[in-house]
Structures are given as C-alpha cells and as structure tokens.
Amino acid sequence: MSLSARNWAWDVETITAEGKERRLLVGEKATLLCLAEHENTDLGYAFPSQSLIARKTGLVERSVRRHIITLAAVKAIVITKKRSREGKWLSNVYVLNVPASYRTKDKAWLAARATDY
Question: Any idea what the CATH number is for the domain that residue 47 is in?
C-alpha cells in the first residue's frame, strides 16, 4: 500500500464524467479506495482481482467492473493487461493517477523511485 494513493483516494470527492462534474458514487469510491490500498509502492501499480475488490468492498463483481470502467474513463486510473511469458492474459494492472502533490509527501514512494518530484 502506498500512503500517497490512499490519501488521494480518500480526498477524491468528484469526477467529471461526460462533461459534467458529479460526486463519486459510493461504489466508485469504495473501488478506488480498494485499488489504492493494493497499490504496490515498489512496482507503482495495483493488481487485485475484481473478485477480491468485490469481496473487500461488499460489491458484486459486475458493479466493480462498471466502477473500474468509470474510473478509467475519467482518468482516475489507467488499466493495462499483464501477460505471462507464454502470452496468456494474467490480470489487469491498475495505475492510479495520483497527483504529484501527494507523491512528494510519500517518502516510501519517493525512495522506491529514487527520483525527484
């Protein structure tokens, strides 16, 4: 878990979807918080399964999928797919678009990157 991702996820209150700003739905917030809790500081991304997110948030998997799609559409997260060496799809990888203002306060994040923000 990275402190910066968790703090940012808690602070996100609104998103802009289809040109309109609106409050984050409860399920969207729970999904974003779960992704933030699973962000690996060393790797820089999260990769929990949708079933794990559903289990931890109390949502059904279909809702989790819908919330993940929404979060990607508003650019809160970026979804990439991870493949095995044989080319088989293993899992989704979620990169959280945490602002630099949060990352610069996260010593573990900075140490893992060894770069200046």
Answer: 1.10.10.10
